[in-house]
Specification:
The protein has one domain (11-164): Rossmann fold (3-Layer(aba) Sandwich), CATH 3.40.50. It starts with 18 loop residues before the first strand and ends with a strand. The longest helix is centred in the middle third of the chain and has 22 residues, at 59-80. A six-stranded mixed β-sheet has the order 2-3-1-4-5-6, sandwiched between helices. It has helices at residues 29-40, 47-55, 59-80, 99-108, 118-125, 128-131, 141-155, 167-181, and strands spanning 19-22, 44-46, 88-90, 111-115, 158-161, 195-196. It is an alpha/beta fold. It contains eight helices and six strands.
Amino acid sequence: MIATLAEKGFRSLKEKQNLILIGMPGAGKSTVGVLLAKQRGTAFLDTDILIQTGKGYYLRELISRHGISGFRKIEETYLLGVPADCGVVATGGSAVYSEKAMAHLKSLGPVVYLQIELEPLKARLGNLSERGVLRMPGQTIDMLYAERRPLYEKYADIVVSTAGMTPDQVVALVLRGIRGTYSGQNPLDTIDPFIYSLA
């Protein structure tokens, strides 16, 4: 179901060209983000790549060097530095642990949660340590998923389910969701199993 952002007090977001993508690692944020940026004619920013380029280490190396709390501080610093003309931003899966960073990102544009179900996620992720997925020692993907999902839903303006979708189809759903939230229609008039707002 799509609900208007105006109902949540986000009418000003209508004028902004930025889109912020959140979700689990492996949800397709980077792939979809690149396609969205091309479609909209805007810049694309992957914050994981930004951090790795800026610090000169892979994520897994940064986590090993600085620990979980240290990495979260590094990530927060980079997220707070995302500029107002960022375009489409694909965030790291752990971005939602920082309230301050998410408040900044939400001020830049609507936040879209790319939702992926647990089983397909497991198939995509493989070795969590090699991917540099931030997690507590002994924390399984099931536990991480259960921990993060409420945070993604907390910050999302729009949720797009990626179940059975190609990247191009997800892009179309995101754009449809954004248009729907600004259409002024009664949210009950439009029902789509793949797009909904948490209003």
